[in-house]
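Lecture 7 notes: from sequence to structure.

We start with a single chain of 224 residues. Read the sequence below before looking at the structure.
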Amino acid sequence: MTYKWKNRNLRDLGIIVEKIPEITKAKKKIETIQIEGRNGFITIDTGVYEPFNLTLECHCTDEADLNEIKSFLDGYGTLSLDETKVYTAVINNSIPFETILPIFKKFKINFLVNPIAEDVNETTESLLNIETLSILTYATIYPNLEITCSGDVSITINHKTFYLYNTNGTYILDCKNKVIFDENNLNASNLMLGDFPTFENGENTISTTGTITNFTASYRKSYL
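Now the structure, written as tokens:
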């Protein structure tokens, strides 16, 4: 199995993962309220999930550079444990390198992990001339949209419409960061009116008006 932190295989640094805990579904964040004079409690479903802790038990090979490992195992990044999904996480322990024995060189890496994982690989689909896009996802998806068009066009996704005016070429909408660029990588936000679209779990409805010759979406599915 390949284990990656910040897109780098831990084994390439001489880190051998001996054991990882079983990853279960993240706990939903539910608030409970007790009211005086009423039996039991009432709950408020916040609709979000709590982060969880995950510990990798590791050892180093004899050839490993502990200074390089110490510098690398730090901060915030992406964590992949099964070569198919990736989490965002932060290392939240001070790894006790000073206690690593000369023979065994054992240590633990503690991660605080965001509960939603994404596909390692992007999914790219053509949305031209389709009316619905079916997606299985556990969180809102913010896609990258590539649109080749001319003149004034409108695109409606899940009953939310945005407009592009005076177009002539290809435009990339980064819906997560809410920016739009043309094919020369120049900011084209002045051509757009409306909110950046999102995809949700299930059927996503799509409709367009105007002259559009290419309309593709790139996104990563999400998992609990």
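Residues 4-117 form a domain with the Elongation Factor Tu (Ef-tu); domain 3 fold (CATH 2.40.30.200). Keep this in mind for problem set 3.
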